[in-house]
Amino acid sequence: MIISVASGKGGTGKTLIATSLAIALQDKAPLQLLDCDVEEPNAHIFLKPSFSHRQAVSIPIPQLDEEKCTYCGKCAEVCAYNAIAVFPEHVLIFPELCHGCGACSYLCPENALSEVNKEIGVLEKGYSKGVEFIHGKLTIGEAMAPPIIREVKRHIHRERLAIIDVSPGTSCPVVEAVRGSDFCLLVTEPTPFGFNDLTLAVDMLNKLAIPCGVVINRDGVGDNQVEQYCHQEGIPVLLRIPLDIAIAQLYSRGVTLVEGMPRWQAAFIKLYDDIKQIVPTAQGRKTE
Ligand code: SF4
Ligand code: SF4
């Protein structure tokens, strides 16, 4: 089963939830934690893995052979990302906009475009306690997170439980990270901002047909709009974590809730049991 842990906005404690769930379940199931928040990965701070594998992640960027080019403009036409501009006697390629899709070189009628690899980040893999840990790190200044996320997800073993820590928001990297999940936990806080961003995240998951449940962090602050919304939409609130200075201190020290406060172990195991109850029902609904 693949469980992604996402949030409509940053700073909700998503990584604390993902890592605490992994630690709570480490003896219950063979599991992987994949940190797909590749622009700012920080799950390793909580899990402290020993890395045994490191690889560069690259994307293929077009390279022009001016001798062959007729400046027909076909490559610029097919590039959905405006990464190529063709002038009467000149072609400009913008590698920082290129997604490495290969369409331009494939469709060039003169075979004037070849591909060269451009390194955009790294993937590291290792173990922490009983958890296989994989994360991607986008090089500072690079913009293409999805290819690294795809590379991290290529390491998923379907027969294991995979927990994916997703970047905040609802942009392309989030869609790439949650795509294919059996369930998505949305971590939010009961404030107007938390409510607004939760609705955006739920819309995204509905479009991807991924069932979801909510974790309310800092429960007790703000208002009850999140509760009311979840009730109206039939979205289960699976866990509530109160505003507690001791939890904030654990977070700032990079300690999971389960390790810092062992009484939370049972709550995270129940969270997983509740998800296991929901997933077959949701999958049944999808195939009806
Ligand atoms: S499609 Fe090929 S031939 Fe046409 S402008 Fe682009 S590189 Fe040149
Ligand atoms: S590889 Fe794709 S994104 Fe990159 S320049 Fe070519 S068409 Fe555009």
Overall domain count: 2
Helicity, as a percent range: 25-40%
CATH architecture of the largest domain: 3-Layer(aba) Sandwich
Radius of gyration: 22 Å
Instruction: Output the CATH homologous superfamily of the largest domain.
Output: P-loop containing nucleotide triphosphate hydrolases
Largest sheet: 9 strands, mixed
Hetero compounds: iron/sulfur cluster
* Number of distinct beta strands: 11
CATH topology tier name of the largest domain: Rossmann fold
- Supply the number of helical segments: 11
Order of helices and strands: EHEHEHEEHEEHEHEHEHEHHH
- Class per helix and strand makeup: alpha/beta
Report how far apart the termini are. Answer: 20 Å
Q: What is the residue-mean pLDDT, rounded to a whole number?
A: 93
Quaternary status:
single chain
Shape: elongated
- CATH C-level class of the largest domain is Alpha Beta
Strand order of the largest sheet: 3-6-7-2-8-1-9-10-11
Protein architecture, described:
This protein has 288 residues and is an alpha/beta fold. It folds into 2 domains: 224 residues, 3-Layer(aba) Sandwich (Rossmann fold), CATH 3.40.50; 60 residues, Alpha-Beta Plaits (2-Layer Sandwich), CATH 3.30.70.20. The strands form 2 sheets. A 9-stranded mixed beta sheet has the order 3-6-7-2-8-1-9-10-11, with helices on both faces. Strand 10, helix 8 and strand 11 form a beta-alpha-beta unit. Helix 1 packs across helix 11 and helix 5 runs parallel beside helix 6. The two termini are 20 Å apart. The mean pLDDT is 93. The site of one iron/sulfur cluster (SF4) has 14 residues, from helix 3. The site of one iron/sulfur cluster has 13 residues, from helix 4.
